Amino acid sequence: MRMNCLLVVCLLPLIVACDSQDWEAAGYQDGYAATINTACGFRATMVHGKFDNAAYAKGYSGGAQAGATAMAQQGCDRLK
After folding, report:
1. Domain extents in the chain
2. 3-state class (DSSP) for residue 73
3. Is residue 5's pLDDT more than 60?
């Protein structure tokens, strides 16, 4: 019994920390890359796709807007 309690106490922080990623930053990077890669036809882009996470969705939207702005200002050739 004591060993089980010790095991739970040791593993609990690891389990809780599994989703400690900065989802807003991940969403921003995904949105930026997906917008540029799709609009310029560079390649398909794999994204996390955690749109049920509000921080990820907010970051994705901001990144997509920034990607569209960069593409409009610099063009596809300069963004390769």
Report:
1. 21-40+50-80
2. helix
3. no
